[in-house]
Amino acid sequence: MIKRHFLRKIFSNVSTFKHQFVKYSLDNVKTHQKELMSRGLPKQKPIDGVKNIILVSSGKGGVGKSTTAVNLSTALKLVYPEKKVGLLDTDIFGPTVPLMMNLHETPFLTDKNLMEPLINYGVKCMSFGFLIEEGSPVIWRGLMVMQALEKLMRQVYWDDIDYLIVDTPPGTGDTHLTLIQNLPINGVVLVTTPQKAALEVTKRGAKMYKKLNIPIIGLVENMSTVICPSCSTNIKVFGSDTEKLVKDINIEILESFPLNESTAEACDKVYKCKAAHVQIDFSINSLRKMSDNRILNATKMNGIEGKTPFLIGVAGGTASGKSTVCKRIMEKLGQVEVDSKQRQVVCISQDSFYRELTPSEIARAEKGQFNFDHPDAFNDTLIKDTLTDILAGKMVQIPIYDYRHHSLKKDEVLTIYPADVVLFEGILVFYFPEVRKLFHMKLFVDTDSDTRLARRVPRDIIERGRDLDQVLNQYMNFVKPAFEEFCSPTKKFADVIIPRGADNHVAIDLIVHHIKDILQGRPRENGVYNTPQSI
Ligand SMILES: Nc1ncnc2c1ncn2[C@@H]1O[C@H](COP(=O)(O)OP(=O)(O)OP(=O)(O)O)[C@@H](O)[C@H]1O
Ligand SMILES: [Mg+2]
């Protein structure tokens, strides 16, 4: 039985679900679907108070996802006691976290109607199991499950969490997609047994995460062997094909974990702190491995938390050599000796922020009659929000632009991890005042217009599949006038103007020296760089 009085408070009331569910006729559903599709993918939004989110996932049921999620979170807390750790159980039909964490109370509500997580072993936990009577089945349709998940994602008062470990149900279904589409996931830990059937679905799951650009932290091979209690022989009950799988999909085994009577017992009875220690060795080793891993750099485990990257804007006309200038700067900065392990320089293109076109605009674009050089072609709000997040040291995900089809790639995003230096290049990066003021340094690549045209024509024909007439028409009608009206006037905002672009080695060397001086020498006040001087 659902604790109705409680649910009513959280979900307004249970009958709302039924009402909404019945109300949809086929037409309604179609209109609703159209409306949803026109809105595009939901925008990922962090959970209030949560810094990093790690999913624990497997296509297969019963392989030890929840066991791993519970151990990972308790281990994180033991190894890094100063960190605040949370555990979110998103399995609506089979929540096991209450049993494993020995938590059985009903959460309190804050005055803002947010559920307060229950705490054990120093880990804040939330599970749908806290909201239903123990042992009672949940017989819900997908829509209701999604609404419950939404509440678990957004209506919990986490307050302040460094690492939120998310236990997921088996499979790669609605729950996983909803989590991925709505939350900025730092990475996923896959769990499998070495059994062929489990490996097969794990592989499918891994492919899904790769396709959706979610970094895979690594694989936990659970129940890898059984140690015979009388003769201590190591028996591989489920075979040994895991190595092949990790090679195939190019991921790392974090740890292999034997089938162990005490683990099963601990989970079946009450998950005692003593039992957590049975697996804690595995977790410590894995965490150490992971701390050398880029993903956990992203989760800011190695002390780079709160870092404000040095943000450089690079503007200039079409084909002026902006990307090559950025590439040179990145190469030269990559060789900085101090902190070389940590040094990370990334470059983002303004092209990722073209807005979605309407069907009629796409038709015009296909005939070369859409002005891609006009400020209106860009989503300047998204640029501002993304750069603001980057400056706050957050991991961000940005769209990928498909030049051939004049659209953003569906289901594909690019993950940008916190870095020391971020270059943002594009024709109009200094045009929008709100964006312009975010840069620590502004460079303008000033290349002669004939040279730019001579570079643009073959690039558009060869790389972007356009024909000569179309390229020239577009240049004369849109590119050239827009450069003169919108791009060229922003030169006055630049700190440094680089004539001849990437060929100007002297200018690039001077700029790189200046950036190195700032990164190595200058103190930051509250994580913020002092305003750079022009050179
Ligand atoms: N290494 C192990 N040795 C012995 N028993 C284990 C081990 N790992 C997990 N178990 C047991 O196997 C059962 C399933 O584990 P768990 O609930 O973690 O799997 P799951 O993948 O989360 O399952 P579901 O798909 O139902 O969510 C539990 O009873 C657990 O105690
Ligand atoms: Mg589970």
TrEMBL record:
Record GO terms (molecular function): 4 iron, 4 sulfur cluster binding; ATP binding; ATP-dependent FeS chaperone activity; metal ion binding; uridine kinase activity
EC number(s) on file: 2.7.1.48
InterPro entries found in the cross-reference section: Mrp-like_CS, Mrp/NBP35_ATP-bd, NUBPL-like, P-loop_NTPase, PRK/URK, Uridine_kinase-like, YlxH/NBP35
Keyword set includes Transferase: yes
GO biological processes: CTP salvage; iron-sulfur cluster assembly; mitochondrial respiratory chain complex I assembly; UMP salvage
One term under GO cellular component: mitochondrion
Domain spans labelled Phosphoribulokinase/uridine kinase: 311-506
Superkingdom of source: Eukaryota
Pathway per the UniProt entry: Pyrimidine metabolism; UMP biosynthesis via salvage pathway; UMP from uridine: step 1/1; Pyrimidine metabolism; CTP biosynthesis via salvage pathway; CTP from cytidine: step 1/3
Family: Belongs to the Mrp/NBP35 ATP-binding proteins family.
Family matches, as NCBIfam families: PRK05480.1
Name of protein: uridine/cytidine kinase
Organism whose genome encodes this protein: Sitophilus oryzae (Rice weevil)
